[in-house]
Amino acid sequence: MVSHRSTKGASKARRDHINHEIRNMRALLPITQEDQERLSYLHSMAAICTYVRKSVLFQGLSAEERSHCSLPYEAFLQALHGFILITTAQGRLVYVSENVAEYLGLSMIDVLQGDTFYDMVESSDKAIVKSNLDIENNSSSERSFICCMQTSKAFKLQHGSCCSMMVTGSFQSFPQPLSTSSVCPTNQPLFVALCTPTVNRLQSSDSDFCHSFSSVHRLDMTYTHLSDSALYFLGYSAEEMTGRSWYSLVHTEDLSLSADSHRSLLQADDGFQVEIVLRLQCKDLSWTWIYIQANKDSECQGISCTNFIIRYDKLYFSSRPELTV
Asked: Which residue range or ranges hold the PAS domain (predicted)?
């Protein structure tokens, strides 16, 4: 019995010591006392690991490089239409700007508790993120993709369940310190990106700035009507699209999600709306990211869609201007 009590006491002493060290490290985090107190020990360690990771990866920057601008970075965040994200090629979070709360309803500390970029996105889009963080099979350092991100419950009630974000950035190398640890190698490029909300996050007052077209479909998603503006975004006239299946334009990687959303709409009552972000193929075989609001009308035995252009590389009446909404 003495041995049992001794072992139990030793285990408690070790736990107390570990928790004491975690509290000490948590106190060093550059966050408010209120944020510190609401962090569990597990979430504290996730946030601590992120800050340690950032310090190690950026320790090669000289003091002059770190302070070359006299303005505080908070001044720039207000001017950004989105939040800044930095990750390793493995998806480990290195930095998330504090204005992330404006776009996801989650504070910077809430996001850092997840530790990886993959924890920020919906499970259906993790494969998209993984393919874009793959630096071995993609020679270009530039990346641009759409993914749906996790939001707070309050944010979902206000903005809906679909939080699609355009992630645009590149892999960048940073100066290396004189000595590096093999445990945490710093010779890897970091993915630096700006995450901006897509058109479904715009306020109604901004609707005039949204590029969109409307379409009407049979219940099997065959086109029956298309607004004339579709010609400028897809390259197809309304006559060319009439009688054609919507699925024939959907990107193969988006077919499963499209079918699930279509099925949900067919099984729902009138007035139910489905939101989906996907790629449609243009007449010249390029791809256009589109955010779709689809509604079923049983009386007309059809489905009506409002198609917002999230990103396109060119308009069919002009010479390749790039635009990201």
From this structure: 73-134, 224-269
